[in-house]
Amino acid sequence: MDTKQLKELDQGAYIRAKVYAGQKSALRRYAELVIGDFSLPRLIKYELIITLFGPLPGALGLLLRRYFYRALFREVGRGTVFGRNVTVRHGHRISLGEGVIIDDDCLLDGRGSGEEGLRVGDETIINRHSAVQCKVGPIHIGAGVDVGAGSSLVSQGGVEIGDMVAVGGGCKIGGGVLQLESTDDEADSTEPDRHDFVNRGQRRYSRGPVRIGSRAVLGRSVIVMDAVRIGEDAMVSAGMVVREDVPADNVLMPRDRPLVMPREQFRRRGTPAPAEPSAGTAAAPEVPATAPEPASSTDVDVVALINRALETVNEQLPPERTIRLTPDAPLLEPDGPLDSMGIINLVVSTEEVIREETGVETNLTTLITDGQNAASLASVGDFTAAVQRAVSATSATAGQ
Known about the structure:
Elements (H helix, E strand, L loop, with lengths): L6 E2 L6 H5 L6 H9 L5 H14 L4 H11 L6 E2 L4 E2 L4 E3 L4 E3 L4 E2 L4 E3 L8 E3 L4 E2 L4 E6 L2 E3 L4 E2 L4 E5 L2 E3 L4 E2 L4 E3 L2 E4 L21 E5 L3 E3 L4 E2 L4 E2 L4 E2 L4 E2 L4 E2 L8 E2 L49 H13 L25 H19 L7 H4 L10 H20 L1
Parallel strand pairs: 2-5, 3-6, 4-7, 5-8, 6-9, 7-10, 8-11, 9-12, 10-13, 11-14, 12-15, 13-16, 14-19, 15-20, 16-21, 19-22, 20-23, 21-24, 23-25
Antiparallel strand pairs: 1-18, 17-18
Helix pairs in contact: 5-6
């Protein structure tokens, strides 16, 4: 049972609601965007520091920013380094520890963090082109964290990252659920105001903060969704979309392995092209039309396992194109429902089922890549017979 309760976020906390509330000049809106309120002396100080020192290259720029950028933040520890063109918004809510490195072209935005603020621990590195943005809720980053280049940490409900976490480049970490407003009252047929640029007929919710435990590792381009908790010492493989909690000391990775094969093995409609036998080479023996029964009770019941794989494939096909679980049912187009990608899916699913149920590791990719085996994909019976031979050959090899 999901114990994370969906809670509506404060719409008024979003910057759009603030800057477009009431009649304001462009200057006042800009001031509220970058420093939080309209104070002409503070805005002038901000503009001078960012304009004069932000783009400066080399060691001189690092030295001057190290001294003058302190005035933009709530707190800055010793030895903190700022790269070129770092954008700072609502810095009075941002605290940086000792030895922090903020690389070139990063964004630090504490506008919606509240009193808790945006906090970055000692010796944390935020690499170039990354954004750390508090829309609604605080962001707490621990000590010794590495945030890869081009990553985005956006708080809509809060983000908490423990110590010594490694975040790969291009990761997206942030919560929040966006829902369109609707009504069950049929009498109320009025449409939402399409010119309401603040609310937009939308509501934002969150089930709680995103939490990443100490020493966790996120591969490149990982996306972490609302209220997800990743435990200590956990690892997430590159490119994963994390929608559910990952326990401590566990690894989250894709289940299906990739399959590589030459493109020329497939015809225009996806049917593997049969290879012509070379001179002096006997033609491949004709494959039986029906699947052989297991020779003994110790043999693998290939028929049952392939039926399971077929059921998995059928779940991804429209009802009118599902594969019949009979030996004479065709597989390949145009007589059958599967194109080249469908055949790949069937082969990989069959390997997975055999491995899970029997522990036998089979390699069925030659059924696709070898043109002489094209007949093995004509029907369910042909495919079953080919798999039976592959399993028997694997078992015999293992027994030697």
